[in-house]
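In this section we walk through a basic example: taking a raw amino acid sequence and producing a predicted 3D structure, encoded as discrete structure tokens. The instruction is simple. Fold the sequence below.
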Amino acid sequence: MQTHTFFVVVGLMLSLGMAAQASVDDIAAKMRAGDYKGITGMVVSQNGQLLAEAYAPGYGMERRHDIRSATKSITALLVGELIADGTLKSVETKLSKILPESFAHMPKDDPRRDITVEDALTMRTGLACNDWVPASVGQEDKMYKTRDWGAFLWNLPMAHERGEHFSYCTGGVVFLGRVIEKLAGKPVPEYAEERLFGPLKIEGAKWEKTPKGFTDTGGHLRLRLSDLHRLGQLVLAGGEGLVAQKWLTEATTEKTTVYERRERYAYLWWLNAGIVKEQPLSLIYAHGNGGNFIFVVPELNLVAAFTGKNYGKPTQFIPMQILTREIIPALIP
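The resulting token sequence is shown next.
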């Protein structure tokens, strides 16, 4: 799929022919047979109608999966709830204004004090933090070995101008969890249950904690495959009255280039686009290491969710291949 820089949300109602359903059924049969190595499940729907739900051998619908960084996209939805509440006035609000104690060790003119909520949402804090480069001083594995992840983050030096350079940094998203807790006045799991999971009938969500007892909003949330699919339906439907449509549009509109990659980035949601069978399509998705994905294709009214365990391997992108090379072509006449 070739990237372009705009994303149009269009509701295109397509009738599913017998041949298309047969193709999707064949993909589901391969999933049940374990033919997609390391991919543990798939749920696909179009126009709100379930097309396929399949699990690899040893997995089932009640299994909760560590969705890794797909957690970040859910964190973006919760930040939107703060905007709706009015407790967060703007994404341009400086993190140092919300949690000044984390910045107390810095000089008053330190550029890190100017980092905003939006900078964390778009991976443009400017901090020397790049999870994709093991040598980076702020790489997440180094953070995980410390007792205070917040202190680790705010002792990093600046490597770029704030708001100018994409650099994938889990630490900044984990800190957004502290922002949510401070402004919501309650723990993140409780806020998520009240504003998102409860109304969506998502039960038994399991959040991990940092060593200091804060919620890890950068990864490791455990949800069922059907829960991921339900969240995808929420995005496709424009928030369903739970998440403000204005915020959802903002959160899934391109904000920055991802260097040396075809993808673009919004507010902790990934974007891509291309043409299949002469039809322009846009792709909104959450991605977690291992093969955990929530895919939304607005033009086809299509939602697909996958779970996987191919951690740190190129095979974690098998779901992307299944979607773009098999499912989508089958659904376009």
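Looking at the output, two observations stand out. The two ends are 18 Å apart (CA to CA). The chain has two domains: 1-56+224-333, 65-222. In the next section we compare this with other chains.
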